[in-house]
Amino acid sequence: MEVEVVPEGKLLQRQGRQPEAFIVVRQGVVRVQDQTTTAPDGSSASIEAGPGTLFNLSELILGLGASATVRTATPATLWVVPAEGLRDLAAKRPDLLLEVGLRLSQEMTGRVNAMTAERQEEERRQRALAPYVVAAPKRGVIGRSKYAERLRKQIVVASRDPTRRAVLVFGEPGLQKETFASLIHFGSKARTGPLVQIDCASKQGESLLAELFGRGSKEGLLYWVGDGAVMLKNIHKAAPSILFQISLLLQEGTYQPLPSNWVGNKFSSLDLPRPPQKNTARILLTASQRVPALDQLVTTIAVPPLRVRPADILDLQRWVWMRICVCAYAFPGNTEELFGLVARAATQSIAGDASTAGAKPAGGDVAGKAGAGTGSVSAQPGPIQLDKDVFWVAAKSADRFKVNLLSSLPLARGFLRGDFFPEGLNHGFTKYAFAVIVIALFVGPQDREHNVFLNFFWDWWCAARWPGVFLVYPFFGRVWCAVCPFMIYGEIVQRWRESQGAQLLKWPRDEMEKWGGWFLWGLFAAILIW
């Protein structure tokens, strides 16, 4: 056996090659890299081993190649037994070789058991986090206004904060504050860790604390997240007792798991109260308003509403347009095809004849260029409303039997997109004619021989309308709803109330789903009985 002192970075062996010696690390650290060790991103990674680590014993005995590449990570002292010397020792002292092999087997068994326990723990962790995990955001801060630039800088500073201080992102409803909060996590060095979210508005009291801190022997999200991040959504809606516990968490960096529920007037032996646990996760919070109880404990980021940064609306429109109009389809081409698609859409949208491009003027004054190669400028009054047909893509197999009647029937397209339908028809004729018919039905004679409107209602309205709706639906969809007289009077009342400054209430969707069908049934039953 020889004693060797080697410097840092020396290559001791390369994976796959025949090893030249049996090596024992006496002092120092070596770096081991093989195909079974991978980083979270899938690339190969290395592990470090210290004194007592053995290399090449089984490989030399079985005549195999080295199982890993080994380099010294620090200056190291090694015990080295040349391959021939090890074989001679095996021939002379098989009992010694057997004892070494037995100890090596015990060591490998311990490592396998430890790896199995780690894998099982990771599976438990993944199951616990799965309902709460938040995916990486699909966009950043869109816009070039001073407000967008300030918001972008605040997010960058918060994501690079070495202390990982808690952050509160607040702003008016509808500003996608959770997206900006997640940017802080996914822009930090801990981005490989999980980000989980709990909605404080849907969970209150002990149920929220139990999920966050754990209860009894059951671990909470703060334990399973580790060095990741926890996002508390709508923290302003949390109860004062919850805010107090969150304040203690942010101030002291520890949390107290909840005690187990009493069972038979006693605690389970596994659910005794536990000591406070150290928190290593970063806390992100979102709210629709400031939370004074947390002001001194968090970094506050205010998301400005769109009304104060109108310069960003165009950039947001472009992003949404690309997602909806292009990304929503199975685009078969590549970059140049995509550029051609956009150029074609722009050229058609500003063509002299808007109808040939499937576009409709909507008022105002705009001017645009017809695109590269045309050398002409076309001005057209008003912005252009583009149809999906402008953004051509390869047809899918499921669309081979579909026919766009608006493209194949120019007269129908012109009628449906004209000023007469449905606005002129509804408010220039139907709202008056329907009122006259209803009054005549109520105050006129109640027999068909003397009241022509009764014949019209029962023979034409009821008998012909419903079969007509069914026949027209496959070709024109719910076109009847555009001219339904019942809707017209609701629209008239709505316009009048808005002109008086009234604020429209939210549509009672839940109540209508529960009672709307019965209400309509009762109305039709009353009509038939009457």
UniProtKB/TrEMBL annotation:
UniProt keyword annotations, A-Z: Cell membrane, Membrane
One GO term of the biological process aspect: regulation of DNA-templated transcription
Major subcellular site: membrane
Residues covered by the Sigma-54 factor interaction domain: 141-347
NADP in keyword set: no
Gene3D superfamilies named among the record's database cross-references: Jelly Rolls, P-loop containing nucleotide triphosphate hydrolases
GO molecular function, a single term: ATP binding
One Pfam family hit: cNMP_binding
Compartment(s) where it occurs, according to its Swiss-Prot or TrEMBL record: Cell membrane
PROSITE patterns assigned: CNMP_BINDING_3, SIGMA54_INTERACT_4
GO CC terms of this entry: plasma membrane
InterPro entries on file: 4Fe4S_Fe-S-bd, cNMP-bd_dom, cNMP-bd_dom_sf, NosR_regulator, P-loop_NTPase, RmlC-like_jellyroll, Sigma_54_int
All copies of domain Cyclic nucleotide-binding, residue ranges: 1-89
Keyword Cell membrane: yes
Protein name: Nitrogen assimilation regulatory protein
Species per Swiss-Prot/TrEMBL record: Monoraphidium neglectum
